[in-house]
Design a protein that fits this description.
The structure holds 2 protein chains of 2 kinds. By secondary structure, chain A is an alpha+beta fold. Chain A folds into 2 domains: about 55 residues, no CATH class; about 200 residues, MucB/RseB, C-terminal domain (Phosphorylase Kinase, domain 1), CATH 3.30.200. Chain A is built from 9 helices and 6 strands; from the N terminus they run H-H-H-H-H-H-H-H-E-E-E-E-E-E-H. Chain A has a 6-stranded antiparallel sheet. In chain A, a hairpin with a 2-residue loop joins strand 1 and strand 2. Chain B is mainly α. In chain B, helix 3 packs across helix 4, helix 7 crosses helix 9 and helix 8 crosses helix 9. The chains are: A alpha+beta, B mainly alpha. Chains A and B meet through helix 1, helix 3 and helix 4 of A and helix 1, helix 2, helix 3, helix 6 and helix 7 of B.
Amino acid sequence: MTDPSHPEDTRLIAFLDGTLAEEERAALLALIETDAALQARLERIERGGRLIVPAFEALQAEAPRARLEDLLASAIVTDETRRVLERPRARALRFPRWQPRLVAAALALFVLGGVVGASLNGRIGREGGGSEMHSTEGWRQAVAEYWSLTTPETLALAPTAERAAAELRAASDKLGVDLSGAPDAFPGLSFRGAQLFDFQGRPLVQIAYLDPQHGPIAYCVIARPDQADIAPTTEELDGFTIVHWASNGQGRLLIGRAPAERLQALAQKVAG
Amino acid sequence: MSRTDHEEVRTGLSQHLAALWRYGLVLSRNRDTAEDLVQATCVRALERSHQFLPGTRLDRWLFAIERSIWINELRSRRVRQGTGVVDAEIALVVDGGREVETNILASQVLREIGRLAEAQRETVLLVYAEGFSYREAAEFLGVPIGTIMSRLASVREKLGGMADSPKQRMTSERGGDDGS
């Protein structure tokens, strides 16, 4: 509602903002000539107007840009996750114990982890027996599903050295394997953090890397005390190349959209 | 949904983050809420990217989403929590660490704006900082053009009075006003 005590305000504003029609402008100027109060109000409004733009510019310069970029990155992951979950559910029939919501939550934690210090513990799958997910391939399938949500943007931020050390310590403790050398284990790959999951009651550690040439690559280790050793084996799963092997009661794999030779060469750095 | 529209929204979002944050801060007068608003706006915009009309202004569309989230979801929550007013002066200032004259004045002005009613705060932001025409602002806020101009005059007049005696204003007590 316009202010009844200042009926000329709309004209004054239009005049100052240069949007007043020429004849109205002349009439207003004539009125101002004879009305000192109106002239004073015009001057005050003019003065006040000059302060606004610089103040709002200064405010925008204060925007926490890095944090806002992180918020956007996490919104993009949330959106990508939703899109994956809304796809036709053919896979759900093949893997009835797959828990997409938990993966989404874990993924959100993964992305937000560096920002808000969220828990290191995610969870893939759930405990229980008798499903296909218990098969040898199950954990690799789960990793491939999860990794399909990861983009270079997901891994845009490298963890701080302290955070990386804390993540690897937690993962090493849970798994009973020393993973402290993981950041430098693969020449040419940039370490992007470790995350601890639970796959059907067994600890599963996923260590993320960014390959400048081939994008996200993960190195995963799962406790499999009952499993016989397997020599490094290459397979394709959901468009990913996977090299997996087992030794000393652990299953291990490297996964990425990279040529088999690349992953095989990387596997040699940590296998055996 | 067209993948291209989605990409356009996704790419465009990153260019408007600071503006969305500022609008969120002017609405809520709370920095945490401003960040919540930005995140919720990003999520909602990506979710609804198929509704964005290519060739129209993305920033206007994002502002409309942010405003609707504020009005329908966050404002009431903040009122329930009783935090609607208290931090007006904490939020709307610029970094006191940089004691340059421009920032001192900007902080005074923002503090004054922080005391205004929500409708006045957002009108002045949209028109003078975001370049909305009177008509655009009127349509966006669902009020007559005369109301927009009257709000602008009223805010500018208040700020004009501040310019008379900035020092006195600087030390004045806070007087939050969350009405609209």
